[in-house]
Design brief:
Layout (H helix, E strand, L loop, with lengths): L5 E6 L2 H10 L5 H17 L5 E8 L4 E8 L26 H8 L2 E7 L2 E9 L37
Antiparallel strand pairs: 1-2, 2-3, 3-5, 4-5
Keywords: Kinase, Serine/threonine-protein kinase, Transferase
Pfam families: HATPase_c_2
Protein name: Anti-sigma regulatory factor (Ser/Thr protein kinase)
Length: 161
C-alpha cells in the first residue's frame, strides 16, 4: 500500500476532533466529516484519551481513502438501522455517525489486527472518478450509485444513492 499523504497521531479527545478537521481541510468536507465521526466513535466506544492514528491516501480516479486506527480490535462499528442515515431515529442524540459515513462513502470496512483495528472508508472527491476493481479491496464491493462527486452534505441530493 502507498504511504499515506497525511498521518496524524493523537489522543482521542473531543478537543482533537476539530484539529483533525482542520488538518484535513484540503481533502474536502466529506473527508473531514467522516474523520470526525470515526474519531468521535473511538472516544465514545473505546475511550477518551486512547491513541489514534488518522491516515489519508489519494488513490487513482479521484478517490480518497481515510483510515482511523485505534488499539481495541474488539470494539467494532455497527451501522444502526441498516438504511443509511434514514435508519437512525431522528430524535436520537447519537447513532447517526456510521449512517452518515455509509451514505457518503463509496465503501467502508474494518481491518482487524492483533492489538488494533482500522475503520476505513473511500470517498470520491474528483468530478471524473475511475471505477474501482474488485482487486482494490477484496470483500468490500462498491455499491452502485456512489461513484459521483462527493456532495459535501448529506442533505444535498447528489449525496444520496
Amino acid at each position: 500500500m502507498m504511504r499515506p499523504a497525511v498521518a496524524l497521531e493523537l489522543l482521542a479527545t473531543p478537543g482533537e476532533v476539530s484539529g483533525v478537521r482542520r488538518a484535513l481541510r484540503s481533502y474536502g468536507t466529506d473527508v473531514q466529516l467522516c474523520a470526525s465521526e470515526l474519531v468521535t466513535n473511538v472516544i465514545r466506544h473505546v475511550g477518551e484519551g486512547v491513541p489514534v492514528t488518522v491516515r489519508v491516501w489519494r488513490e487513482e480516479g479521484g478517490r480518497v481513502r481515510l483510515g482511523v486506527t485505534d488499539p481495541d480490535p474488539r470494539a467494532l462499528p455497527v451501522l444502526v438501522g441498516g438504511d443509511g442515515a434514514a435508519g437512525a431515529r431522528a430524535e436520537a442524540e447519537s447513532g447517526r455517525g456510521l449512517a452518515l459515513l455509509d451514505a457518503l462513502a463509496v465503501r467502508w470496512g474494518v481491518e482487524q489486527e492483533a492489538g488494533r483495528k482500522t475503520v476505513w472508508c473511500e470517498l470520491f472527491t474528483d468530478a471524473e472518478p475511475i471505477a474501482a476493481t474488485a482487486a482494490d479491496t477484496p470483500g468490500t464491493p462498491e455499491r452502485s450509485g456512489r461513484r459521483r462527486r462527493s456532495a459535501g452534505a448529506l442533505g444535498h441530493p447528489s449525496a444520496r444513492s
